[in-house]
Amino acid sequence: MSKVLIYGEIKAGKLKKTALELTSEGRKIADGLGADAGVVLMGPHAEQFAPDVAKYGADKVYIVEAPQLESYNSEYFAQALAQVAKEKGAEVLLISHSIHGKDLAPRAAAKLGVAVVADCISFELDGGKLVGRRPMYAGKCYAKWVSLSSPQMATARPNVLEVRENPKAGAVEKISFSPDTSRATYTTKDLNLDTSGKVDLTEAEIIISGGRGMGGPDYALLEEAAGIFGSRATVGASRAAVDAGWRPHSDQVGQTGKTVTPNLYIACGISGSIQHLAGMGSSKVIVAINKDPEAPIFTKADYGIVGDLFKVLPEFNKELKSLLAE
Amino acid sequence: MKSLVCLKQVPDTETQIKVNPEGTGIVTEGIKHIINPYDEFSVEEALRLKEKFKEGEVVILAIGPDRATESIRTALAMGADRGIHVNDPAVNTADPFAVAQALAAAAKDVQYDVIFCGHRAIDDDFCEVGAMLAEFLGLPQVTLVTKVEVAADKKSAILERDIEGGKETVEVPLPCVVTSQKGLNEPRYASLPGIMKAKKKPIDAKNAAALGVSVEAKLQSKEYSMPPERKAGKKIEGLEPPDAAKQVVQALRNEAKII
User: Fold this and answer.
1) Which domains are delineated in chain A?
2) Would the CA dihedral through B147, B152, B154, B157 be positive or negative?
3) pLDDT tens, position by position, for chain A (326 residues)?
4) Interatomic CA distance for residues A28 and A34, integer angstroms
5) Which of A26, A50, A2, A18 is nearest to A169 (CA)?
6) Taking the domains of chain B in order of start, what are their residue ranges?
7) I want to staple B9 with a disulfide (CB 3.0 to 4.6 A). Which of A186, A307, B42, B71 is the partner?
8) C-alpha angle A33/A36/A38, rounded to 5°?
9) What pLDDT is attached to residue A197?
10) CB within 8 Å: A135 and B227
């Protein structure tokens, strides 16, 4: 039995930080319900991560291995997840709202006959029911949602929930999974992964974004800043920069791009349209560099520099480098 | 090449969203509505496939109140052939599970090689309907698609999709459900002749009873609230770039304690 079940996402042979965030949160929910917390890990690299999730509060670790689970595939992963949820009597099922989780959660939910409270940024228990608070309209407003059926499924936004150590037994149990191969599915032909180790915007702790004020596709100054911060930082863009063809679509922050919640968001040459502000407005700290003192971005920025970004950023990078080198 | 395009009408991205005084939802008066931007990519891709194969049909399937007709007409003006409008108070505001069930029921009467959905709707941001629809119809789903190449025999397609930190190319048997991501294409504007023609194209109206769906709520919302008001912080004006940069970097370390 695991009334609270957490799907631990593994990417390229590594357990993701979101898995620890969810395990910590799942532990808290399980304690609130007086229940056990179990973590499901799938695929060929799964078992080695059992001690990691145990450290953050997993009473049980369910390992599912099958040839169909060697690389991610929505159908088989959803089948396996739905099976474990049923077998273990899950009443709460938590998944990350990552690209992977967004693909998996609704398919598994449909198999279980439930809907998902998606993209939650916090949870509470109300009379034994899980309530998730989530942004809507790309963060223009928030609401609390509750699932009326069991298991209560929710996805949580990466990089928001607190990671907290709380060691538990983490007893490993292998699950026997025989997939229904009559269901048509896709096959992966090619994976074109960015090997630079660039962290996805939605999971970055620090984002340096460039907008129309960049004047062209040269983002070297922003890349340099991200490089100084290291692997937890990445470069983003406004819609204007993406539509101009300066940056790939996957870099776009805003209502028709990605909604992000980094610890630090540095907006360079971004005026701050309502769509952009919705997408990054819940960043913990916002820095804006813009020539126009009237730019709306300054109304949201904790620190604003009115000036030419091509003059300010090199100095910013220099300062940053010497500070972080200390 | 036959495509079924699921379309949702959503508030314009320019909309300043306000929560109603009771906190039960948003203030809907005065909102201008548009086609969900991701669904617009779907319409465009379906039209391009029909043009490429020089045969077929593009059917628009929308759930929503009377005003959703305008968005269906816009898609018809872009070149789609006909529309299906599911208009039923029980379904119009339902959760993603019920919406996907209604779409699945409506899809049963349509012939298609591909079903397109937007990868998310920019109003409730659930990101669930496409995958659920695929599951209910027993079809594969390929989400966050940025490139579509359908084989000449229309039995399979090669699709490119966004994954974390890169792209994945997959081969999928058809029919399947594709969810559209930005980057798939640049949607066309409706032409004047297109707008004229769209007025005569059929839109089939349906309700939940006609589809044989009974809606059972799976999710419930409460306590809508506005995001905490962000106050403008320190604005540094008139300083030389090295001084301004130094001040902010120091503040990030000593005040914000973020670096």
Assistant:
1) 4-175 (3.40.50.620), 201-325 (3.40.50.1220)
2) negative
3) 779 999 999 988 999 999 999 999 999 999 999 999 999 999 998 999 999 999 999 999 999 999 999 999 999 999 999 999 999 999 999 999 999 999 999 999 999 999 999 999 999 999 999 999 999 999 999 999 999 999 999 999 998 999 999 999 999 999 999 999 999 999 999 988 776 667 889 889 999 999 999 999 999 999 999 999 998 999 999 999 999 999 999 899 999 999 999 999 999 999 999 999 999 998 999 999 999 999 999 999 999 999 999 999 999 999 999 999 87
4) 10
5) A50
6) 2-211, 231-259
7) B71
8) 125
9) 66
10) yes
- SS3 for chain B is CEEEEEECEEECCCCCCCECCCCCCECCCCCCEEECHHHHHHHHHHHHHHHHHCCCEEEEEEECCCCHHHHHHHHHHHCCCEEEEECCHHHHCCCHHHHHHHHHHHHCCCCCCEEEEECCCCCCCCCCHHHHHHHHHCCCEEEEEEEEEECCCCCEEEEEEEECCEEEEEEEECCEEEEECCCCCCCCCCCHHHHHHHCCCCEEEECHHHHCCCCCCCEEEEEEECCCCCCCCEEECCCCHHHHHHHHHHHHHHCCCCC
Average pLDDT (B62-69) is: 98
Work out whether strand B234-236 and strand A303-306 pair parallel, antiparallel, or are unpaired.
parallel
pLDDT of residue A196: 64
| Conformation bin of residue A197: beta by default, left when phi > 0, alpha when psi is -120 to 50 | left
Contact residues, chain A, for B222 at CB < 8 Å: 143-146
DSSP A309-320: HHHHHHHHHHHH
Q: How many residues does chain B have?
A: 259
Give the CA radius of gyration of chain A.
Answer: 21
- Superfamily assignment of B2-211 in CATH? HUPs (3.40.50.620)
Question: Using CB atoms and an 8 Å cut-off, which of residues 69-128 of chain B contact chain A?
Answer: 95-97, 100, 122-128
Mutate to test the interface with A, among B146, B156, B164, B170 (most CBs of A within 10 A): B164
Q: Which chain B residues in 144-183 lie under 8 Å from chain A, judged by CB atoms? A: 144, 146, 158-159, 162-173, 176, 181-183
C-alpha torsion sign, points B83, B172, A179, A27? negative
Q: CA of A169, closest CA in chain B: separation in Å?
A: 32
User: Is the link from the previous residue into B175 a cis peptide, with omega within 30 of 0?
Assistant: yes
One-letter amino acid of A216: G
Chain B closest CA to A168's CA: distance in Å? 31
ipTM of the complex: 0.95
How many CB pairs below 8 Å do chains A and B form together? Answer: 280
